[in-house]
Structures are given as structure tokens and as C-alpha cells.
Amino acid sequence: MFAVELGDDGALLGPLEPWRAEEFLAHIERGREHIGRYIGLPDLVTDLESGRAFLRSYADKAAADTGRLYGIWLDGLLVGGVLFRTMDVPRGIAEAGCWLEPAAVGRGLITRAVRVIIDWAVEERGIHRVEWWAAADNTASVAVARRLGMTREGVLREHYPHRGRRLDMEIWSVLAPEWRAAR
């Protein structure tokens, strides 16, 4: 397995593959309530088989070049992840996303990890536009978009049904020329 160091704090970024389903489920259990405040991942991953199925779906996306999934490890413990939920290489568009368990919040892990995957998408895969969708109330996710130099494009009002309510979704993006200029 490859791993990319995310700084001098021991954080690593690497592929999150189906063989890690037990580790993934344990991570989701540690952060279930926190992670589920704005995204449906904990509602999808409820047991070992559903965890394995989720990871397998991203292995299939990677094989089809339509998505990617990476874990973030801190001191050998899986604490979060980043992904390209969608990737349309012919059109040059990808949507990045993330999640993190509470013990790892506030360390800049998501921002550092997303920088790595955006660099890869822009430079290696020729992605022109990277999108970031965040619940408007998710101030941490919105802050990541700002730190990444993304532009807020608008709000889709009551767009995302989540746990009995409809969330407003902010759409942010960065274009490849902007990304390169900011580095």
C-alpha cells in the first residue's frame, strides 16, 4: 500500500479498500453521531457487510475511473477520509468530500488531505473543475472550502434530505488554473 505523509504529525493518507472493512466499521462506530450530523455515511455503514459493500463500491468506482476513496490515519488509527464522490474525467469535473471522527477534529487533516487529492486530480487526471458540496450549517466543511481557495457559487435551498429534514447545500469549486496559481 502507498501512503502519503500529510505533515510532521504522523498523519497518513492512503487508499481505503474493502479488506479494511473491520477497521472502517470501528472508525464509523467511534464517530457515528458526529459524522452523521451532515452526511449519510453512518446511515449506510451499519455493520461489517454494509461497510464492506461501501468500500467495494469505491473500489469499483476506482476501477471505472469514476471516483476514489482514501483514508486518513493518525498514529496508525483510521480517523477519517476524503474522496472523489464523483469523477467525470472526460468532462474534467470531480466532486470532493470528506468526513472525520471527533478525536481528529481541529488538526487540519481534511484540508491537508484534500490538497493532496486535488493536486493528483488536476495534475495526473486532467480534472479542470473540483467541486465541494457542503451543508450550509456545516461551518467546518465550509471553512475547508475557503482554506482551499475555492469560490462559493451558490446555495441550493433545502436540497439534501437528511434524517427527516432538508438541508441547504452550498456549492464551492476551484478550477485547475486557479489551483495551480494558488500553489
Q: Could you describe the 3D structure shown?
A:
With 183 residues, the chain is of the alpha+beta class. It is 37% helix and 35% strand. The chain has six helices and eight strands; from the N terminus they run ββαααβββαβαββα. It has helices at residues 21-35, 41-44, 48-64, 109-124, 139-147, 176-182, and strands spanning 4-5, 11-15, 68-74, 77-88, 93-100, 129-135, 151-162, 165-175. Strands 1-2-3-4-5-6-8-7 form an eight-stranded mixed beta sheet, with helices on both faces. Strand 3 (68-74) and strand 4 form a beta hairpin. Helix 1 (21-35) crosses helix 3. The longest helix has 17 residues, at 48-64. The radius of gyration is 16 Å and the shape is globular. The protein starts with a strand and ends with a helix.
Secondary structure elements and their pairing?
Layout: E1 4-5, E2 11-15, H1 21-35, H2 41-44, H3 48-64, E3 68-74, E4 77-88, E5 93-100, H4 109-124, E6 129-135, H5 139-147, E7 151-162, E8 165-175, H6 176-182
Parallel strand pairs: 5-6
Antiparallel strand pairs: 1-2, 2-3, 3-4, 4-5, 6-8, 7-8
Helix pairs in contact: 1-3
Please outline what is shown here.
This protein has 183 residues and is of the alpha+beta class.
Strand proportion:
25-35%
Main beta-sheet strand count, sense and barrel state:
8 strands, mixed
Described by the principal axes of the CA atoms, the overall outline is: globular
Q: Helical segment tally?
A: 6
Low-confidence stretches: none
User: Which H/E pattern describes the elements?
Assistant: EEHHHEEEHEHEEH
Helix share, percent: 25-40%
Class from helix and strand fractions: alpha+beta
Strand line-up across the major sheet: 1-2-3-4-5-6-8-7
What is the residue-averaged pLDDT?
A: 96
Distance between the termini: 27 Å
Number of strands: 8
* Cα-atom radius of gyration: 16 Å
